[in-house]
Predict the 3D structure of the following.
Amino acid sequence: MSTKYKRGSFQLMKSMNRSTILNMIREEGPISRADIAKKTKLTPPTVSNIVKELISTQFVIETTQGMSKGGRKPTLLEINADQFYTIGVDVGTTQMKFVITNLFGKLKSHTTLTIPPFPSHEDILSIMKKGIRELMDGADLNKFLGIGVGMHGIVDPEEGRSLFAPAFQLHDIPIRDVLENEFNMIVKVENDARAMTLGEYWFGNGNDADNMLGVNVGNGIGAGLMVKGRLFHGEHNLAGEIGHITIDLSGPKCNCGNYGCLQTLAAGPAIAERAKKELKAGRPSLIHELVDGDYDKVDGQKVYEAATQQDPFSIELLHQTGRYLGIGLTNLIHTINPKRMIIGGGVSGAGEFLMRGIEETIQSRGLTDKAKETSIVLSKLGEHASAIGACVLVLEEFFIRQE
Amino acid sequence: MSTKYKRGSFQLMKSMNRSTILNMIREEGPISRADIAKKTKLTPPTVSNIVKELISTQFVIETTQGMSKGGRKPTLLEINADQFYTIGVDVGTTQMKFVITNLFGKLKSHTTLTIPPFPSHEDILSIMKKGIRELMDGADLNKFLGIGVGMHGIVDPEEGRSLFAPAFQLHDIPIRDVLENEFNMIVKVENDARAMTLGEYWFGNGNDADNMLGVNVGNGIGAGLMVKGRLFHGEHNLAGEIGHITIDLSGPKCNCGNYGCLQTLAAGPAIAERAKKELKAGRPSLIHELVDGDYDKVDGQKVYEAATQQDPFSIELLHQTGRYLGIGLTNLIHTINPKRMIIGGGVSGAGEFLMRGIEETIQSRGLTDKAKETSIVLSKLGEHASAIGACVLVLEEFFIRQE
DNA sequence: AAATTTTTCTTAAATTCTGAAAAAAGACTT
DNA sequence: AAGTCTTTTTTCAGAATTTAAGAAAAATTT
């Protein structure tokens, strides 16, 4: 049994307290030293000493004075939010999104570049460099703490590599090494669904759900698992590959070779496929007009658009999709039992339409009342969730004690 | 976000080191102080001081001297395995098993009592007390560290209660309070699948798999999740209720009301059901003889027996069951991605026959080579796995730093 | 018998938290 | 307006514990 043999030391003690205080300021600030001492059960001198250090690193500043409660006014402490920025990249199947956020995850600027079909390793890396350079242009380099990359497919976060990107059919892209070399700052790489989850946990709808799960529904379906406030990767970084869990043995064939994978029933292409079939069979729908009779143009996006315009067929189709997704999510409730699940990714625009089916299914299939109580919410960060989450990868380095 | 605000203190530092050293002795002993210092990166005096304390608590003893490597012979340290005992209880659907183990999880004695049909709260608790009293009879009370209980159904380990035991249709049995009151020692209560998993992790086939999963296949199917060496419960202690994950939307109806739950395809009753159907249809099999034509007597057990005697029908039936189970396990690989899965519970006797189907399915359905590498092994602790795991619940209190 | 290696113990130094109390700043009372 | 009380923050001595360095002890090798 490899209960990693952790050693207690002065350094550990200090870094735990540093991290605790810094995060308390981040999450509950503005807050006074005295309040921190009360809440952490650290003594006032300890808090004062560490705060002094934090102020000297410029992560924390003293702001306004607070209201007195009958004595000396407290000096309030706050994260120096705009002193440092982080860069986040979200590598999708056709687009690469770039964002700059401050220490509170607030979007400062963003841009998007297009990925050509059948890109090479070099294509991906040079688009990445280009986008980052563009975004950083003119700014003070010292302001940037690092770069985070959220990438679809299988990623090795420890080595900072994309091991396999299905949409590009590329293996083993050494993202971290290349970017670190180019920009000379910390670079973190993570799977996009996990990045999204992390983003929602820190700055989105994940708040106060220590055990939660982000579900990224787009061309495929991926999830990020949050266990005790940290991302969970599994043994080979495959945790959360829920697009390929089997929910219907006699379901449609998946590109992975099996039948009835969740994503053959609930991902974007599955929606488009079902829509096409019905449309060709003459089913009346607004989609006919949207694509002008060219069924090849039907995709998830078109269905959402039609649904937004109250097209009954599209609404029903998304409802049905929500029910399928709900079955997958119910399986997750019975496996992981998270406090909350956050639905994001390409479909999150159509989230409301999916939601009803999801909720219905969980209510009908959940094993117990507690299972049915699992809160399901839509992404708050929307289309930038993965990129903002990628920024959090960098923030974690500075805010969370690394063990 | 509730990143629990942990405070670093001298006590914490000390207790971390204490726990580290104690566990190193447990897992790697006999071992010398010098070796512990090397491996933990603690300094020799720190190790010596803590070891002195551990010896004074009688958990550790100096044993033989080791081989010298060219200098003074090392004094080897070992867990004082038989200085203390723990009591483990496994509450099944028809039987309650009781074991006494030493600090190495070694079985010292055991007994089994029968649970009557439709038991009341009081029945369960009094059988429990009776079995424990019987087993402790005559022994020195100071030898016992505590009592652990593994109970099927939904359990609240924090409150030490069985929230719902489906086999008895009982709610809210206050096991811990009653036993603590009766025996005046630490009492821990946990779900049986989780207890089994913990047992295998400490003393069975879980060794060195920090992220692993124990699967208990009996009348139902339950799993225990091990994350970073500790049991994972989920938000409402429902994590691992994998008997009710849907794998076949058009599968058989489950007693939970849904269709195609894993346990309608792969648990004991499902095996019996399929066997009966085929037998009644005239399928030749050794089972006919085993039950003497009375199909009501057919259960999982009979099928295993027949398989053991090379009955082709039973072997094929278990093979098929293994394939179903494999689908469930593949879903878990793609969700949790554990390093290892351990199959135990009522069916573990028939494990070999299931294994082939499980392996086949994982090989054919695993998403990547890494997924296919997941090691699947049978329980080492067999029928006592849950009860021994229940003992570990108590050992954790003494060996693992509680935070 | 001397040199070397390994284990263990001793002592002093370093790090960090803790507790008591003082200082600072403001609010309330008379 | 002065004095007293509260609250916040800092200061400083003391305590807990690890760390570093060296010495003693014991066994093996030369």
About this structure: DSSP finds 14 helices and 16 strands in chain B. Chain B touches chain A through 79 residues (CB under 8 Å).
